[in-house]
């Protein structure tokens, strides 16, 4: 029919363009991977090699302890003396570090540059242990103080309660007073009882 009774293929409900007119709005959603919040993300690949910091710390502490002993000083002294004497008195073809012993200086500098961080690392680990120990001691002291205060209050309450309780000595003193009072009243009644008995006999 003239007048365009038939409708041409127009854009459907799912063929709407995006906000920038680049295409359908669902195209970008299909191409973009969805990230689910209930699935943990895969760990990233680290460029640096992984290591156990606890094991490295233990090794550094052992090295630091060895550096602070007389054995290390003795061995270092022996090595330096042998090094110097060898490079002075050995044949020229066997000397590997001529005077002024540049290689020896380099080795000592390298040893010092590694020893200082190891010692600092050992000190940091010791500081961490001391901090944990102090925290535990503080908590233990707080518990001890709380227990002491509780026991003090309980003892004070018991003392106040015992102040109102009749003790054995108090009961004994009261009984002795009663017995003494009875003994004091008994001689006054004996003559009257005697007269009454005599009158009854007559």
From TrEMBL:
Swiss-Prot/TrEMBL keywords: Membrane, Transmembrane, Transmembrane helix
Region (Disordered): 1-34
Pfam family, one: DUF1003
Segments crossing the lipid bilayer: 72-89, 101-121
InterPro entries, A to Z: DUF1003
Protein name: DUF1003 domain-containing protein
Organism per entry: Streptomyces yaizuensis
């Amino acid at each position: 029919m003239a007048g365009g009774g038939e409708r041409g293929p127009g854009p459907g409900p799912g063929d709407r363009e995006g906000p920038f007119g680049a295409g359908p709005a669902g195209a970008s959603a299909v191409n973009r991977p969805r990230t689910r919040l209930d699935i943990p993300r895969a760990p990233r690949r680290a460029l640096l090699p992984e290591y156990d910091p606890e094991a490295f710390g233990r090794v550094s502490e052992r090295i630091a302890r060895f550096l602070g002993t007389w054995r290390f000083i003795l061995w270092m002294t022996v090595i330096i003396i042998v090094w110097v004497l060898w490079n002075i008195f050995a044949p020229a073809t066997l000397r590997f570090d001529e005077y002024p012993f540049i290689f020896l200086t380099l080795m000592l500098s390298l040893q010092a540059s590694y020893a200082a961080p190891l010692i600092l690392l050992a000190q940091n680990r010791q500081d961490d242990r001391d901090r944990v120990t102090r925290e535990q001691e503080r908590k233990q002291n707080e518990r001890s103080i709380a227990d002491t205060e509780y026991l003090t209050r309980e003892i004070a309450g018991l003392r106040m309660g015992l102040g109102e309780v009749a003790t054995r000595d108090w009961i004994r003193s009261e009984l002795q007073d009663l017995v003494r009072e009875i003994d004091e009243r008994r001689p006054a009644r004996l003559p009257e009882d005697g007269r009454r008995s005599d009158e009854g006999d007559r």
